[in-house]
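Backbone geometry tokens:
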Amino acid sequence: MQDRFDALRRDIEDRRAELIALTQALIRFPTINPPGEAYTPCAEFIGKRLAKLGAKVEYIRAHDTPGDSDAFPRTNIVARFEGSAPGPVVHFNGHIDVVEAGDGWTVDPFGGEVRDGRVYGRGACDMKGGIAASIIAAESYMRVVPDFRGAIEISGTVDEESGGFGGVAHLASLGYFSKPRVDHVIIPEPLNKDRVCLGHRGVWWAEVETFGTQAHGSMPFLGDCAVRHMGSVLDKFETDMFPSLAQKRTTMPVVPEGARQSTLNINSIHGGESEAGADGKPDDYDGLPSPNVPDHCRMIIDRRFLIEEDLATVKREVSDILDGLKHDREGFEYAIKDIMEVMPTMTERDAPVVKAVSDGIEAVLGKPAEYVVSPGTYDQKHVARIGHLHDCIAYGPGILDLAHMADEYVIIDDMVESAQVMAHAIDALLQGPIS
């Protein structure tokens, strides 16, 4: 068995240049979400590569999911390599979408520049370097162990950055992440090469709206300002909510340390009349807003909660504040609407996929694996809640703190070593015979 592991490590090391080139090629597809650009050509690029090696390739468009249109189709790719005999199925799932590049770059965000042992570009870390590593790991495994049993699947899915509803959620609803089709899932998110990510905190997104009465801005006493009402909500959050959340701690090994408590973020606030131009883009408007007292104000809240917390209680903490203001503040009226809710998830440390990857980390890196939980959700939520498959983790190259940053990069050595860990895990899960 040691000879086989050595052969896998050598094969992946020998394909370092190919791994770099594949990462560069993936980065050069500007799969920006929103709106969902270049999804189809990126999916087809992955599919054509894997089909040449004998995979059965499917392209699955997630019709009628958020954002899907003929201009921006939600195109996913699933490739399956069948082994020489029945056995377990290992699935590598990576999201092909990336966030917008933003400002502050010193390199072309979609150029895939190689410099100082790194590949730069939007998505290099999150998570096209991880997708490339998983593809190379699977290809190397099939070269070294051509008569493996079971099956290996690789998917490139969309929209993870906006909830994953057109990607893994859609595929899970079709049975792609359930037994008996799949047994083990590895998602190569950038949680560092020596870490096994067991799961994530929960999330509740909601829209809070306050109401008022419109009047002329020169006579605000004739109206009722919805923005001021929202200000009272923010004040209550500051004085009551945030101090309370800081006291809620978890035994989940969440990284970084600051995320081991409950958190609340104000994602956005919009009050009064729109300042947008005719095309709906605020940047194109060069006039002045109307002098009105705003009669509505909307706020999007992003509440991250712990496995020790109950979702009903999480929601009640906000509604209690709003109901208190309705009682205490003259004219205060509100509405609240759920946008998204995801329960915390954490795979057991003795699960087969956890053991396989942690053993691979120790074999390749010569150190014990660290077990962590992500502060934010990722597509494991859909594998667990829709697919009801719990032998799922995140493991991949990349430094978590670099995700979504300007000059994002992935370290080449990390990709090589992560691919070696992945190949080691495939072998442990499929138990392929020595060729």
Observations:
- The domain at 202-278+287-342 is CATH 3.30.70.360 (Alpha-Beta Plaits).
- The longest helix spans residues 124-144.
- The radius of gyration is 24 Å.
